[in-house]
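Intended use. Records like the one below are meant for learning the mapping from a protein sequence to its folded structure. Do not use them to infer anything beyond what is encoded.
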Amino acid sequence: MKRYLLLLCTLAAALLSAPRAHAETAGELERLLGAPIVSCQDAAWLVLSSVEAVPGGTTPGDAYQFALNRNWLPRKARADSAVTLGGVSLLIMQAAGIKGGLMFTLSHGSRYAYRDLVYRGLIQGRAYATQKVSGERLLQILGRVLEYTEAPVRRGPSV
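Structure written out for the chain above:
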């Protein structure tokens, strides 16, 4: 539980930075953390806000529409439908600018986005692409993604 609290505080600090200071953000994060299944709309808002793809104060509906217009969500995604690990993976890879492998590059499909995130260790544990995502799991994945994208590039020893 302590680990999840630390993750929640980290994400809250990222979302509550000076340009994003609103009182409802902490409430939204708390609601999402306790959600057994997250909707596509809420997942789009959380992911896009975290990677700063949308400006502060964006509503979940606007974030969903933003992602939908850019084909960052699966074709069958609806605002109120449950998001899957494949759908979240596709959204994360597109929004965060994570380069995928050969099959993802050719198809831009959610299955290959999911496989790439598993390969990178960003999705851990027992999982499959069509599995519904809880709020807790989404925050865990997003925390790993933010660490992965912000990690400095390691180079070999200088000569």
